[in-house]
Design brief:
Glutathione S-transferase Yfyf (Class Pi), Chain A, domain 2; about 55% helix
Length: about 130
């Protein structure tokens, strides 16, 4: 997601490389979910919760696609099942109530690229 949303323009190789990697991961999980409801065993586990958290952001990962999981029917089915859970509404309410920083200032750059900042050269990117 970094190269699609935060990196400087002109890094098409990186954008394509990491997007293809996300697609590969989606395919692995899609294949694993064939004939299964849950990722591990027959019950809802932390693995399902974790996968939901990442898959819920598929529109961001697959920037520009209106229905980002359409190519992966088992992921779509999994997300439909997960999104029917009452806890998902609560999770979305928490996420929607949080204000994320959108300005790419020096503090944001330092948080994103900590190795580019030293105590002596704070505020510059090397």
């Amino acid at each position: 997601m970094h190269f699609q949303h935060a990196a400087p323009e002109g890094l098409d190789y990186a954008v394509n490389r990491y997007r293809r990697e996300a697609e590969r991961h989606y395919q692995v999980l899609n294949d694993h979910l064939e004939g299964r409801s849950f990722i591990v065993g027959d019950h809802y586990t932390i693995a399902d919760m974790s996968a939901w958290g990442w898959l819920d952001r598929a529109a961001r990962v697959m920037k520009g696609q209106e229905r980002p999981l359409e190519r992966w029917p088992n992921l779509s089915r999994f997300m439909d099942m997960m999104n029917a859970r009452p806890t998902v509404d609560r999770a979305h309410a928490i996420m929607n109530g949080h204000v994320f920083k959108t300005v790419m200032d020096q503090d944001a750059l330092q948080a994103m690229y900590p190795t580019s900042f030293s105590p002596v050269s704070k505020g510059t990117i090397s």
